Amino acid sequence: MSDEEVLKAVKLGGYIQVPDELLMDQGVIPDTRPPIPPPPWRTRLRWWVQVQRERLGEIIAGRRFDDTGDW
């Protein structure tokens, strides 16, 4: 190595951009998002009908009652 070749220290840095949503979900920053609106009545009705259909299927299959006959 000659006298002309001098090592120079260079400070390097790196960063990762993290979305605000991820930081809010992890609790790092306060959650400023508006509350999620409730589902419409049609969606709730669809969910209710699906639950009733599953209950009826279990009753027909004989798996809904335990040994005491209770739900």
Brief characterization of the structure:
This protein is mostly helical and 71 residues long. It has 2 helices and no strands.
Molecular shape: elongated
| Percent range of helical residues | 25-40%
Poorly predicted runs of 5 or more residues: none
What is the terminal separation in angstroms? Answer: 86 Å
Strand content: under 5%
Which structural class best describes the helix and strand composition?
mainly alpha
- Please work out how many helical segments DSSP would assign: 2
Description:
The protein has 71 residues and is mainly α. It has a domain at 37-71. It contains 2 helices and no strands. The protein has helices spanning 20-26, 41-61. The N and C termini lie far apart (86 Å).
Secondary structure: elements and pairs:
Blueprint: H1 20-26, H2 41-61
Q: Which structural traits does this protein have?
A:
71 residues; mainly alpha; 2 helices
